[in-house]
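Here's what a typical entry looks like (Paraquat-inducible protein B):
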Amino acid sequence: MTTHFQNPILKNVNSMTASDSPLQTDLRDSLRSLTKAADSLKTLSDMLDQQPQSLLFGKPSQGAK
């Protein structure tokens, strides 16, 4: 009974994991977005580490660094 289902299941898995499948494309796009978000959070965290007062007073002007 399991051999009857293996072939269609493997075909479905192969089509989902193909490099040009919509699932792969969506996963790549999602990972790029997560990477950008993580980079932004790191930048914010580094800035707040150096200038915690910026939470209250805002980001300092370029000349005030």
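The first helix runs from residue 2 to 17.

More examples are in the samples folder.
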